[in-house]
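Following up on my earlier thread - several people asked me to post the actual chain instead of describing it. Fair enough. Here it is, all 356 residues.
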Amino acid sequence: MRPPAPRRRKRTLSSKNLLHAPTNADPTMMEHFQFAQPEWLYVLPFILCLLILRRRRGAEGSITYPTVRFIAPLARTPHSLAGKIGAVCFVLAAAAIAIALARPQKVEDKSFRTVNGIDIMIAFDLSYSMDTPDMVLNRMPINRLVAAKHVITQFVDSRPDDRIGIVGFAGKTKSFCPLTLDHALVNEIIHNFHLRMIQADGTAIGSAIAAAATRLDDRKDTKSKIIILVTDGASNSGQISPLVAAENAAKLGIKIYTIAVGTENGTLANGMVVQSEFDEPTLRKIAQITGGEHFRAQNMASFNKAFTSIGKLEKSEAKVHTVRHIEEYFMYFLIAGGALTLLGLSLQVLKPTPAP
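Reply from S.P.:
Thanks for posting it. Predicted structure:
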């Protein structure tokens, strides 16, 4: 006996998850520092050269007289110190003003991603024929239901900006999940699918299309709406024919992509043959009426290719809008340059007059 499967916690849909695909995602912010006019920075090396030349110029030759040697430092030090500090102030002031003219800035770029998503209803065949093990995954035979669950969950993960809902059908139709952005919930529902969920024999393709179209028509705020019909049989149940349902969907602006699942002639992975009831002409007509496409999934490769093709045909529109905020810092350097200039001038005015 197989051990009982672990019970999964049921998840509920919040109103937030039922909203349209996000129009404004959380902004991405980037910061960097720059100079608006960096050419002014080339002045700094010249200012440094002036400072070096000023120091060399100050080291002038002199003749020492023994009689006045002891008072020379007293006469020279105040004048020399004030001059040196004043010169340094002027050089630093020139450097600060040069940096101010270069206009240092802090730049903040906020990028807002605006998305116009697609509404996708997946009509999932849960009839007993989906138990046919004619698919192979990782060299192991699997039935059509497991193959569909594997491929569709990957597709759901690849559509983060689209609302996705699920309708299951066999002899009758059941809505399992309304349109939602909670893709983890969608995949959990798909993971729990089994062939006894709908206790009605048959394949009601028309009813499935009508139910999915009703879900899509309830949403008036979406530009693009599609149905992906995944089935392995011909329609033999339901109150509405597949073609009539397709025509009604087309009037609502809904495209239908049809995928016929199963091998040619119902050939199993072990070589046995079973009878499969494909009605590909009807599936092609459904796609043609609504502007969609029909695909045949005879193996996992073609199954994946079908959903990849749909993903390329139905792309969400995303736009990135960037808002830039610039904070200027030149004023700080300009004030510093002015203050240093005043200090240098003050030292020049207040320095003692050298003795004759």
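The chain has two domains: 30-109+326-350, 118-315. That should answer part of your original question.
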